[in-house]
Amino acid sequence: MKYYIIAGEASGDLHGSNLMKALFKQDKEANIRFWGGDLMQSVGGELVMHYKERQFMGFAEVILNLRKVLGQIKFCKADIETFQPDVIVFIDNSGFNLRIAKWAKALNFKTHYYISPQVWASRASRVEKIKQYVDAMYCILPFEKAFYKKYNYDVHFVGHPLIDAIADRPQVDDSVFRKTHNLNDQPIIALLPGSRKQEITKMLGVMLSLVDDFKDYQFVIAGAPSQDYEFYKSFIKKKNIKFISNKTYDLLSISTAALVTSGTATLETALFKVPQVVCYKANAISYQIAKRIITLKYISLVNLIMDREVVTELIQGDLNKTRLKKELTAILDTKKREQLFLDYYELEQILGGRGASAQTAKLIYDAVKTKD
Predict the structure, then answer these.
(1) Under a CB-based contact definition with an 8 Å cutoff, are residues 61 and 32 in contact?
(2) Would you state the CATH architecture of domain 2-159+355-371?
(3) 216 burial class (0-12, 13-18, 19+ CB within 10 angstroms)?
(4) How far apart are CA 152 and CA 173, in angstroms?
(5) Which pTM value belongs to this model?
(6) Which of 88, 111, 202, 243 is most deeply packed, by most CB within 10 A?
């Protein structure tokens, strides 16, 4: 069968690559065309557009680049019509994907959505549109099934694909990794400032402001695959700041603590059992708009899933050197770390077991094959 998959950023590329692997196992004749990144491209199929070309952070940035976004939507529609897939699989990235889903459903394409848009965070009214445009929804967060049930929309909870992604990776030898990447023997504080240039610029400066206050540690920037070293170079001004590109999981596996930009990375850090402080600072206009439409108590996936504050969140004005120093000091304390480890283990149990990608691939294949 022919599959058209649309993912929009680094996390979507990761989950899309694992879904593609499962689809190729499920359907030996699978023909996959996709929007994604390097990970999806390494699996096979044909890349249409890389997510690097589509990264805009926040409402203001999207508006400023509206002509480019609209051009990409038009191109995507034309490409789908040419390819004529048996099913379109959307991965997260709701601003773009729901527009394509509306158009695709009107033309009788089969529409499946893997990793639900965060309609539970804001504008829940979008559920009615999702019900109209999406034939099947595959959710990865445990509370989403109950959320959708309130709107009489039956969805599949398939578990979280990060469980598989982390469990299946090879073990890292601490000493070999340090030697390979020119790291010393000091404990590591990992810095995960995000993947988009706008957010990295806002986060990394304040994260690195702590370097002189924690001289017994080395700070290591986890470089995003979507950005070149030259972009990060201007931030690296002191000897105990290191940079490692596209090795975030390996880095987390040997880290003592982490400063993490809100997003999927907060959950990844928790699954590696690394104590963290969650950071978030947006464009002032984007933040004011978001404040008025987002109804959540928390911004990190860890706290949302646990429905209580497990990790500290420093948002907008609270993300400053004084507060960040205080919270980093706290998660280096033994008692605080022990509690975090217990919370992280509970989190992993709530997320369910392994097999999210395989289960989703089978559900997609069976649904489309049955209707043919």
Answers:
(1) no
(2) 3-Layer(aba) Sandwich (3.40)
(3) exposed
(4) 49
(5) 0.79
(6) 88
Report the distance separating Cα 143 and Cα 74, nearest Å: 34
CA distance 16 to 24: 12
Query: CB of 9 within 8 A of CB of 39?
Result: no
User: Is residue 71 within a helix (H) or strand (E), and if so which, with residue range?
Assistant: helix 66-83
DSSP one-letter code for 315: E
Q: In what order do the strands lie in the sheet with 312-315?
A: 241-245, 218-223, 188-192, 257-261, 276-280, 312-315
DSSP-derived 3-state class of residue 216: coil
Spell out the per-residue pLDDT of the chain, length 372, in tens: 999 999 988 889 989 999 999 999 999 999 999 999 999 999 999 999 998 876 655 555 566 667 777 889 999 999 999 999 999 999 988 888 999 999 999 999 999 999 998 888 767 778 999 999 999 999 999 899 999 999 999 999 999 999 988 988 889 999 999 999 999 999 999 999 998 888 898 899 999 999 999 999 999 999 988 788 999 998 998 888 999 999 999 999 999 999 999 888 999 999 999 999 999 987 555 555 455 445 578 889 999 999 999 999 999 889 999 999 999 999 999 999 999 999 999 999 899 878 999 999 999 999 998 765
Residue 13 · residue 44 · CB < 8 Å: no
Residue 230, burial from CB neighbour count under 10 angstroms (0-12, 13-18, 19+): exposed
Residues 6 or more apart in contact with residue 20 via CB below 8 angstroms: 5, 32, 34, 40, 43, 44, 45
Cα dihedral sign for 36, 38, 39, 41? positive
Q: Domain 168-350 is classified in which CATH homologous superfamily?
A: Glycogen Phosphorylase B; (3.40.50.2000)
